[in-house]
């Protein structure tokens, strides 16, 4: 009885999650719009255009000095972080791996096209012909822009429909581009690894949306809101690729030469330090000192987030270690104490704990960046090095490092405001009852949006397998 | 009773799949032959030889201008696509993961050595001393060559023995090298990403072989010809690494500078566009608009195949998006309608649906390449750029772009002919009863060629687990 | 009864594996010490310092000639090998995936910081200011240094506590740095890929420790000392990333230009050849010629180890194939015959068979290197090439290649001595009863050191589930 009934319920439920019209419509319309806009606005820049061969000779350059060779390896590492890193990191839930990897894939492919346009209008517009000229650096920035939305996805993982995710991404990219323009161009703050622009914004954007979409009865899905042995191993694939390639992430768009070199070293060291303090705190607060996979999967990455802004500064190797040291502790404590507190009292349900992995470390990163910038001196950087590192040129030629520090802090505030404000706005839109989101007792489940796999009916789904076997049993008992 | 019996049958079956003599014999003989041939023919080229240090000074070059630094990062990405990308993409079957990853590994390691020789004789032979001089570009081309055979493997996945796969590879590499020489050197068609040379050839080669090896009673293996939850997640590892690194694949051997830069951008955009249309069509044709993992795993890659030939041309960003847009739709529709049709009426059993992922998109890519080439103008490319992009030098100095378009089309035809013709020939050879291929009711199963793992006997085998469940059921009935 | 009792035992057991105080203490103290030491000693070198912009102009260099662009792509590949390669290679055990990936992660992050200091004091100390100046090459060397300890971990996998692993690493890194200094600087042996310095040392270091920690009653854990289907697929992720990136490993710190180029080619070829002979021997010695996953996962990598020392020499392509050919055979035979023999008669329990994958191939690599060096001639290398390849400069300007061959052999002996001697010493320390290592019947089990996941108690653990079934059986018989 119970089995059959629960099975019927399971099917009924899929009714209200039908996205058969909305999802294809959004995708096709959107992609068509992209083709038109790309046709009107986007062209190759002088380094990816066939005229490079002439350009190169005029400027007496070698092919190897094409920006492609400075940035492409880092780009590919960033690309892996976006699609495999973020995707697999979210596969820890026992029955939401398709959604984690698949929707992550969809969001990223959807967002990066819009990001190329939005960021292009702000940063790569050629006023001579009104076209956006793109090269490998634009691809990296598009991936960065998408990262903000993937971070936000982590907060609502398993509780929203793919259509909602596309809306979240559309607005997220737009807000990101504006916020980035204000912080980097108007305020002229530096943010190589995007501690502020990407992680702080993305984190608070997702948390605000999750707060707007609060589900009081989410506990009905509790049996699925946990990991199983294999899903935790899959998640480690994401963790490790994020951890390993983070130095490329923070150095991907920094200055050629020492800028990229230094950013990679600082990130490498901060991450190493984070691993040890994460393990320490995780063990210290568990019964028998056992390690918790949730901490190993997430908090070990906090150092990379927090060193993002200052990565290209003369943070010094020991400075990087200190940043990582603190973030490992703070992030792990966040998972142990803050996440439950936020869910219970602030009504913020944060599936992946992005507050501990992105929001908090992002803010720390912004502060570290402000302090490091304010403390910068010519004696350490060298006159040219200082100018070069902080781009004290043109209208900013006479800016002092202390002033720069203040502007860094201002940038951090802008990121937080855009994140919170934008999240509340978008969250409000996503509460409309038209998006086909799952019922409270059907969250963290691939069943509503993905065709089931064979085994599904036999071994995996408790109720079903029970049901399926029963019939077999009867046959068996008869054969006895 | 039944359980025990079915188990005994399972064991008996392994009899006719014994490759204990043939497999080691082929491997050892082959590898020995390779050592001898490499000893006679293969040497380092001037960039990988210790004389580089003198060569460099004579030509006033810097170490960084060694081709290694132009191509090695792309090479490593391609390498990952070949071994992890293709390997894991095929792990979607519930009980054929060892065969998918392991035989993919064997084919690739086996094929790339033969490819270095075959391609070397055609392209890198130094007539002064009759030696083949190899460098990093040869390694990339060897990987490309192997890709053709791995594509073919996708069509016969789970239905052949490792020995058959080695034969398939031996002939496949040979045919590939000849076909490539005709298309690239004699016809002088351009094919940066190998839409024609790799994907069209490999696709039809595999389909023809599968047609020759048609199994009327394959439905006896149906219970295994499907995925389970975990196997689909494993397959996504392959999908994502192929998707992410495809820009490196299409730009790996293009011209230094703008050629590599542009090819990467075009591929990046085409793939992004494909993801959206794939999701749209997959959702549109499923009940309740649920997404099908098969489409997400495969069709999302079609854009990378189709943009291969034109990737280095001035396809324009919007052009790339259009190519991706169409391929996502066509490829997904292929999985929904064409694959079942081909199996039922054309007697072509295509395990991985390579016709939708490689053959069709490959042909589209060839056509797109022909059109783009024919439409090329000096006003867009610049005089030098045009000459440079299409290598209008030497005997081809006076070739017009429209003529080039025609030759591109001719190249496509050659690829199809070699694929179909070669496949029928090799398929005929593979039908000989000496290769130890599995019985119809033992396909898509690792059991015939791989030592079983522990759990095997306890939890996995239906019969046994069935037994275990029995008790649960009764207990249940009692509790009711 | 039995079920409940065995379960209680399972819980009791965790008592003696409580690391709640020791693990956090070691991590925090250690990381704090690192911060202090880095503060005192470590600074950026001229290529990662902001003064690069001046340095560059003085030396008339382009940004692209910053060492970062020569080595960073290889560094990232090596980084992946260390964290994903070694980590996942060890996930083959059915219930030790968390420990394999997680402790590998901990050891590496812990060790690379100490390695930067130890290696820095020996190789990168700037005597003008007493500071260690680091750049990307130091990061690569730190990863290399860590590799030695991860190899050692393979021998004791599943039998030690995380605290023991940290001790193993602390001493391992120290010994490594000294041994490396003696071999590379004092003896002036060349060892690009570390066949001697990394693999021989690491292999014998681990084996000696395992010998000191011999567990006579380990068979009590036998039910867990085996793989399951999924865990073998996870392990293949490690195998493939190691295999694919090994050319980067062997070429990461070789000379710019032809050195890196040649090392990559040689490694690529050796590895391809190893795959075929591994498959051949694996099939030849199994019933029905079935392949054993253990061999495919490990022996296929032996060629990369064995070609490490000679990778940068003029080994010639066919030479690389021969090295790979032999190692595939020897390594696989080692797994079939030697490992059982060593456990039974030498009391060396080698969980991952590192003797077959690292120790033996490492020794072969050292010998190949000695022979290749002794056989080097100016006619093959060119006068400048010879000097350049073997660094016959300064005090070594007049060293003959035959003399170099002898010194290579001497280097190999040093590596073995340090490995065996250091292992016995450290093994003695690890036998102290204070480290919280698991009981004999609780080895190869994540349960003592990791918080359980949901499913844990229900489906996964054989013994329990097995037991569970029994009781249900009784219920069945009664109900009839």
UniProtKB/TrEMBL annotation, chains A, B, C:
InterPro entries cross-referenced by the UniProt entry: Ammonium/urea_transptr, NH4_transpt_AmtB-like_dom, RhesusRHD
Task: List where the protein spans the membrane.
Answer: 21-42, 96-117, 138-157, 163-184, 196-214, 234-253, 265-285, 318-338, 409-430
Show the Gene3D superfamilies listed in the entry: Ammonium transporter AmtB like domains
Its topology with respect to the membrane? Multi-pass membrane protein
Q: Which Pfam families match?
A: Ammonium_transp
The residues covered by the Ammonium transporter AmtB-like domain are: 60-432
Q: Kindly state which keywords UniProt assigns to this record, in alphabetical order.
A: Ammonia transport, Cell membrane, Glycoprotein, Membrane, Transmembrane, Transmembrane helix, Transport
List the GO molecular function terms: ammonium channel activity
Give any single GO term for biological process.
ammonium homeostasis
Q: Where in the cell is it found?
A: Cell membrane
Q: Which domain of life is it from?
A: Eukaryota
Chief location category = membrane
Q: GO CC terms on record?
A: plasma membrane
Q: Which family does it belong to?
A: Belongs to the ammonium transporter (TC 2.A.49) family. Rh subfamily.
Q: What PANTHER family would the database entry show?
A: AMMONIUM TRANSPORTER (PTHR11730), AMMONIUM TRANSPORTER RH TYPE C-LIKE 2 (PTHR11730:SF110)
Q: In UniProt terms, what function does this protein have?
A: Functions as an ammonia transporter. May play a role in the elimination of ammonia in the gill.
Identification of the protein by name: Ammonium transporter AmtB-like domain-containing protein
* Organism name: Gouania willdenowi (Blunt-snouted clingfish)
Taxonomic lineage is: Eukaryota, Metazoa, Chordata, Craniata, Vertebrata
């Amino acid at each position: 009885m119970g089995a059959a009934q629960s099975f019927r319920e399971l099917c009924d439920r899929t009714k209200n999650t039908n996205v058969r019209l909305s999802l294809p419509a959004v995708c096709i319309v959107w992609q068509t719009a992209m083709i038109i806009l790309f046709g009107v606005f986007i062209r190759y820049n002088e380094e990816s255009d066939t005229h490079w061969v002439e350009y190169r000779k005029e400027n007496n350059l070698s092919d190897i000095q094409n920006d492609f060779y400075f940035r492409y390896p880092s780009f590919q590492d960033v690309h892996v972080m976006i699609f495999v890193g973020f995707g697999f990191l979210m596969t820890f839930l026992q029955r939401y791996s398709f959604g984690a990897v698949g929707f992550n894939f969809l969001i990223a492919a959807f967002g990066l096209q819009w990001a190329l346009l939005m960021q292009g209008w702000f940063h790569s517009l050629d006023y001579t012909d009104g076209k956006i000229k793109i090269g490998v650096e634009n691809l990296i920035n598009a991936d960065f822009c998408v990262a903000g939305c993937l971070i936000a996805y982590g907060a609502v993982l398993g509780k929203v429909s793919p259509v909602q995710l596309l809306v979240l991404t559309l607005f997220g990219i737009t807000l990101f581009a504006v916020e980035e323009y204000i912080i980097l161009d108007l305020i002229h703050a530096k943010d190589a690894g995007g501690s502020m622009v990407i992680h702080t914004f993305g984190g608070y954007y997702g948390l605000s949306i999750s707060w707007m979409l609060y589900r009081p009865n989410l506990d009905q899905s509790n049996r699925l809101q946990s990991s199983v042995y294999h899903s935790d191993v899959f998640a480690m694939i994401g963790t490790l690729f994020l951890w390993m390639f983070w130095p490329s992430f923070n150095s991907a768009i920094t200055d050629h030469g020492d800028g990229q070199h230094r950013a990679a070293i600082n990130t490498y060291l901060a991450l190493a330090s984070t691993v040890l303090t994460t393990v320490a705190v995780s063990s210290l607060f568990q019964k028998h000192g056992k390690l918790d996979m949730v901490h190993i999967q997430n908090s070990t990455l906090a150092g990379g987030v927090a060193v993002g802004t200052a990565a290209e500064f003369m943070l010094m190797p020991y400075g990087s270690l200190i940043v990582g040291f603190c973030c490992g502790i703070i992030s792990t404590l966040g998972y142990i104490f803050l996440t439950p507190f936020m869910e219970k009292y602030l009504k913020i349900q944060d599936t992946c704990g992005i507050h501990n992995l992105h929001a908090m470390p992002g803010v720390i990163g912004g502060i570290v960046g402000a302090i490091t910038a304010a403390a910068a001196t010519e004696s350490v950087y060298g006159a040219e090095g200082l100018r070069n590192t902080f781009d004290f040129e043109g209208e900013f030629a006479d800016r002092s490092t202390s002033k720069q520090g203040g502007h860094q802090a201002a940038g951090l505030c802008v990121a937080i405001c855009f994140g919170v404000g934008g999240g509340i706005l978008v969250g409000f839109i996503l509460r409309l009852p038209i998006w086909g989101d799952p019922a409270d007792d059907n969250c963290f489940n691939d069943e509503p949006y993905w065709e089931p796999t064979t085994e599904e009916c036999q071994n995996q789904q408790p109720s079903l397998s029970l049901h399926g076997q029963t019939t077999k049993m009867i046959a068996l008992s008869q054969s006895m």
